[in-house]
Give the backbone structure.
Amino acid sequence: MRHSLRGSASLVLTVLVINLVALTVLPPSAAAATAATPPAAGDVGPTYAIRNCRIVPVAGPAIEKGAIIVRDGLIESLGPVEKTNIPDDAEIVEAEGLVAYPGLISAFSNLFLEQPARAAAGPGAPSEAPTQARTQEPEEDRFPPGPGLFVLDQLKPKKPTVESFHKAGFTTVLTAPARGIFEGQSVLLNLNGEPLRPMVIRNGAALHINFTTERGGYPSSLMGTIAHIRQSFMDAGYYADRQAQYAKGPAGLKRTEYDPRLEALVPFVRDRKPVVFQCNNVEDVKRALKIIAEFKLNAMLAGANEAWRAADVLKKSPVPLLVALDFRPPASSLYATQGEEARKKAEAEIYPANAANLAKEGIGFALVSGSNGDGAAFLKAVRAAIKAGLAEEDALKALTVQPARYLGVDKSLGTIEAGKIANIVLVKGGIFDDKAQVARVFVDGVLFKYAEVSK
Amino acid sequence: MTKKAFLAAVLIVLMAPFASAQASGGATDKTVAITNARIIPVVGAEIAKGTIVIRNGLIAAVGADVAVPAGAEVFDAAGLTAYPGMIDGYSSLGLVEISGVAATADGRETGRINPQVRSLEAIRYDSMHIPIARSNGITAAVVAPSGGVIAGVSCLLRLDGWTNREMAVKPAVAMHIELPGLRAGRGGFGGGRGAAPTRVEAPALLAELKQLFAAARAYEKRRDAAAKNKLLALPGFDETSEALLPLIKGEMPAMISVHSERDIRAAIQFVREEGLKAVFYGVEQGFKAADELAKAGIPVIFGSLYDSPPVWEDGYDALYRNPGILAKAGVKIAFSSSSASVAKDLPYHAAKAAAFGLDKAEALRAVTINTARILGVDKTMGSLEQGKAANIVLADGDILELRANIKKVYIDGRETDLSNRYTELLEKFDKR
Amino acid sequence: MRNAALPRFAVFALIAAAGLLPVFADGGDILIKNATILTVTKGVIPKGDILVVDGIIKEIGGTIAAPPGVRVVDAAGRFVLPGIIDSHTHIALAGTNEGSEAITPEADVGTVVNADDTAILTALSGGVTMVHTMHGSANPIGGPNVVLKTKWGRPSEDLVVKEALPTLKFALGENVKQSGRTVQPGQTQRYPATRMGANAIIRREFAKARNYMAQWDRYDQAAKAKNPPRTLVPPRKDLRLEVLAEVLRGERVARVHSYQATETLEFMELAKEFGFKIQCFEHIWEGYKIADEMAAAGIGISVFADSWAYKMEAAEGIAGMAGYCHNRGVLVSINSDSGERIRRLFNDAAKTMKYGGLSEEEALKLVTINPAIQLGVDRIVGSLEAGKQGDIAIFSEHPMSAYTRCDMTIIEGDVYFDREALVKEREQAEAEAAKKAAAPRDKGGVS
């Protein structure tokens, strides 16, 4: 917990000492021009007054010339600059000519994941080759621990990745696991520096499931996978029921055998903890919706790059969509199997309009960076989606309030409002402009400097 | 006993009883007269009712007013139509028995350059597929080796005979060269299952062939020089060059498996530059280079029409309309079964093309006289004309039609046995 | 003759599939005039009309006045027949085998329907309007299959034919034994590796299923009691055994891939032992050896015309098989089992005239009413009768002629394949491409 220190000689001394410690303890790069001055343990960091910028709070109308006060990692206030009192302890951040946006949120990424991410928008149609592994009966422990795996344990933050995402306007990402059918549980991160632990907003944010197969084992086909997912949820429910029955009164009942996999699944099938299905094509969307309905899951669909083709079904059973901007037609799609010309045309003209089509149908979605590790490339894709008909306003919502709401953090993130976490980006130009440049990024109130502010 | 040996034994046991279906009846020097038949000679006008006289294995006479010679065995063919026996332009008859069992398949030699390989030498003359094809009116077939770049030399067989040599009409018909397919597995038998090896494109292959041909020419010159001058050292024996010389010297045509539009053009140029006699096989995108093919005077033998269009953009009916377009452009065309186990379906490929624009009469020619001309045997087969071999089919309808039943098949004047694996098994179990 | 432009029909289909254009202006109504109508069950009408309204055949024969707004197709000189039904195929699926284990009835192909498979277009071009698309033959017990209509461009849920009999795929013989496969070092061969093992494993699974059903019955009884014991524990719900239980209860029928006579007869014994129904044997190349047994047991067959001699168990397959079994009273359908052969099913059916002595009418049944009966949908499709669904194909010649071709395919009154329109589009595209190639390029002019 950060405490605020009162102005005094002791403060000056303390700050000096701490900065000295910071300079020796932190790696040299931390002191480079593009980095911030992250607070050392126990410290709270400077108070900032960002002034004379245009503010797009997303929560309300834009403020043409405004000021935002950031203190102790939170947004203390925002308003028109002339009505704002600049506190004495505030460091001024001159932001004339810049636009302040809420830090963008990618509700689905594979950031910092060492292993290669799954091929985006893959065919979802696994290899046919049957394997030799099985003898008479399937062995115990047939399945990998998947549901109980926390991706946080596998992450290795890299500075260039953080920078790349900061420069695209992102302050917050959900990093999801990327291997297997029950891939594991994701973590929601605020990109506030280098060490991993302070980044964590919520570990075990959601359980991730992908429509793929287990290489070299069961299930080796998509239909096997679907049966396996259903049977797993069924078994987890049964497991929970047996445990509850036992807990009520164990006398006369056989003790339930411990199963870590089922144990990990119970909260998702009984307590409505969120589940995310990776949907690689339009049929996956329908497949996921059926499973969600059967087990009454609290779920979202990720990937979904041809979700517009299932608009009717989605309108009947709405679920949050985490739309990755991968414009390649899935290999099974009719756009991909009728010649190279047709495929290229679909990639250039039809798939970029996915988000716009969803918006037209009134289907809610967030835009996510997916397996894309390059922030600039992702923004380029957003611009293409806008060109294909997505309103800029909707694009911005899909990167701020929508993902915040879907992830259950809308009370603390997603807009520039007093009391919320100080995740703010200052951009030269509109954030979706071709030539937009991110000048400053605040994450948890920590300042990162990028492009120079021309004065 | 090894697995292979056991398999071979099983096969011999299975095949043995049916070898007898190969037998032909009667001596060649009988005189036979087929009377009251409707006759479709293919060359010349249809004869509503006429007679065909067979003597010494040849057609002695055919016409409306032909007299029946004294002592001739007469067959009254009232209600039947007489056609020339059909000729399959490309098959694996006699080379492949059960395609999935490697021990029974001899169509594909290993390696890329095999001009020395001769299909005649591997023909299993009592293959169960031969009588089946014969009983549907096919009297001769090209049997081709496949695989690699130069697959070897094909032969032309009559579908009747006690040994492979007896069956040979032409022991060496063409040198087979294979250019890459439009997709993995196209071109040749069996198709490509599993990962395709790294693909070399046609221009590189043709360049390689040019070098091989140049080397063969040089080899021949050097060999001739040594023949004239005993003091010169004799060059070592070069199997590849020796085998290529008949092709290079124009004594034998090349049958080039070629598929894409671009490769067809490249192959036309190659044939011209090398001065080869050539026939093209496959030619799925031929309709895109029809005029060039016609101008170059290169005949085309189609692969099986029982396939999906290799290139989606060419349209669902690409393989079906291809023959009609080429024929209209003036290309000499012929059909093939490209099979052993469904070689009997030769006429239905022609009929399928007729459903998609090929003139019906041309369709019939493309399984008879056209094929004979392309293979250089039109003096002896391909039509019902005096002096040609008595390869005659009597059917109760149009032989390109599925509903027609073949009643008699004569090869070289002998009435052949129409029983085959199908009929023998059926008869056996019908007795239950 | 350059063919640069994409055939417009395909583009049309692409745009339509994007949901951006209404595709079916017909809305299930169509009037076909002046055709030779092959009803299949009620004889041949040498020249007549057929009217479909709201997807159902309203009237057949004679001259029918066109209701307002209904599309009229003049089929003079052509032949009209029921849409062809392929009783055994693997198209329109994202995967067909769960080969990692031998028994996988929980894997249901209905969950992996892929309406984007271009094989659907191929099927339409051959007059096929309905397919029974199935598991492959990797497993002794594969899983449930699904019956689809070839409604290209519609969402996948619209393709499923709900009226069809639920089926379960079984397989016997070489494919299941994996006899052609070499075992990799470090791996064991999958059981079963013999035909004996295949029978044993199927028997085991049905015994397990019977036991599972008994466990649930016992639980249900106890749970119904006035004061069920506190320690009453339900059995675990097992998707795999649930499907087998359906078969034992008669709610799902068996479709069994088999070739040899012995394995077929033995499977019939197994079915008797456990009391379940075999609807059809698939391929069954030695079926002519046991035709009477199958006819007596009321088991149908779904077979090729003449695709044989590709493996040992197909070495005694004869082209006369289908016709012979038909003549012995077996319900026979001809299938394709192939995304290419599916467009020549009518040619394959025609071969039974030559190799079985069937008439044209009987041969046509093998790909229309017979597969409809096998699939349990003969009340709604399989022949042209008033009241049945308007699944219709229009052919240029009699479908049993080698010279015929499919010109139009209609499902429930909507046109899904129109050769004339396709050819016109293609010719237009080629003409435009030729003009472009021939036009001289002016500097600054419009090219």
Q: What stands out?
A: The interface with chain B takes residues 337-339, 341 of chain A (CB under 8 Å). Residues 222-248 of chain A form the longest helix (27 residues).
